[in-house]
């Protein structure tokens, strides 16, 4: 007689795939993860090299003799620097060559973006996403510092110093001061994320944070953050500019 306890029990696991297991994997998130790991490793190697070269002076001793390293601050640019960069000529060559109607052929050329006339409402979309190595995509986490008040576009208008037949246009172009009134923020990465909005009440000047169904008050110094994605500006009226000048004179 065979004892059932002496027999090896077999357990089989059967898995049925209804779809590819790789369907929900975002290649951009994988690349972003490994890029951050490589960046962290690079920082650690640089700190170790600096520590060896400076005989230990590259390290900082904290409480309980714990060692901490000084890391480079995250990259930061201003909105004005982004505008100046967008005005730089871009070379069109090879696969992106320009077609010349006179030559009847694709030739190398340069193109540039310039602002001829500014509108009353400005909407800036910050380039937060890019393709890397031809396949992977990653989110750009660069902190773009933008003014909440007093954005001056005078230097970016190409016809600012040119006379016009229409005197009204010339007068309008002299007043190119803008104030921020809303921001669209994006949190997360390429595979998923969350959007919120900051908006200013025109009547009482209070900023509000709109997060799905939640609405809360927001301090003005909290509006500028690295999560900003779309910026909304409104041009100051002549009356508002006069009031601002009077306030500055009183102060």
Question: Strands, helices and their partners?
Answer:
Layout (H helix, E strand, L loop, with lengths): L26 H27 L6 E2 L5 E2 L7 E3 H8 L3 E3 L5 E3 L4 E3 L1 E3 L9 E5 L3 E4 L3 E4 L3 E3 L5 E2 L14 H7 L3 E12 L4 E8 L6 E5 L2 E5 L9 E8 L2 H13 L1
Parallel strand pairs: 3-11
Antiparallel strand pairs: 1-2, 4-7, 5-6, 8-17, 9-10, 12-13, 13-14, 13-17, 14-15, 15-16
Enzyme class: hydrolase
Family: Belongs to the peptidase C19 family.
GO molecular function: cysteine-type deubiquitinase activity
What's a concise summary of this model?
With 251 residues, this protein is α+β, with helices and mostly antiparallel strands.
Could you characterize the architecture of this molecule?
The protein is an alpha+beta fold and 251 residues long. The protein has helices at 27-53, 79-86, 167-173, 238-250; strands at residues 60-61, 67-68, 76-78, 90-92, 98-100, 105-107, 109-111, 121-125, 129-132, 136-139, 143-145, 151-152, 177-188, 193-200, 207-211, 214-218, 228-235. The protein folds into two domains: 23-72; 74-250, Cathepsin B, Chain A. 22% of the residues lie in helices and 30% in strands. Strands 8, 12, 13, 14, 15, 16 and 17 form a seven-stranded antiparallel β-sheet that branches. A hairpin with a 4-residue loop joins β13 and β14. It starts with 26 loop residues before the first helix and ends with a helix. The relative contact order is 0.12. Residues 16-31 and 56-71 have low confidence and may be disordered. InterPro entries: Papain-like_cys_pep_sf, Peptidase_C19_UCH, Ub_carboxyl-term_hydrolase, USP, USP_CS.
